[in-house]
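Comment on both lines for my students:
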Amino acid sequence: MFRALSPTTVRWRPLEGEGLEHLTLTSTDTPDGAVIRAVGVLIGNRGGVPYGVRYRVDCDETWLVRKLIVDTTDGRSLHLRSDAPGKWATARGAALPKFDGCIDIDLAGTPFTNTLPIRRLGLTRRSGTVRLKMLYVPFNTFEPIVDGQHYTCLDDFKLYRYEAEDRSFAADLPVDEDGLVIDYPTLFQRLSPETI
């Protein structure tokens, strides 16, 4: 089992190019219930294009994403909400039916969003491979699209395989007691607590 969430701060760096992510993960009680909140700041480049991004992901106590806010340093922003699992709308309430069925989100520049399905589903080796539709936000356009992804637990609460549905990419992701990625082969490396 993963441990009960306590305030946590982690950093990752990309293995290609320059960059850094600083993430703070907290759990707070609100009038609407408990909220797991992830706030991250990233700098980096994707395809040779530099970016600066601040994001916030709000989940309920079951790790179901309820709100996504992404703001870039060049003035672009994306604010989405999910009032029901797999149903997305703009911050002002306009429905986005093209994302129907996307329970989780995936932000291209961070390993944090791998934690969302891992924690929400509580996968074990007995679970087999789970196929998911993700609301994916690429960091070159910041225009969300639907992306198929597969998750398989290889070692309960310790190691998970991520695969793109089109089989163009796969990685085995070791996670810590919070379900946060420790090492993301070819993409990201977690920095030790002493460097934070």
Residues 8-195 form one domain.
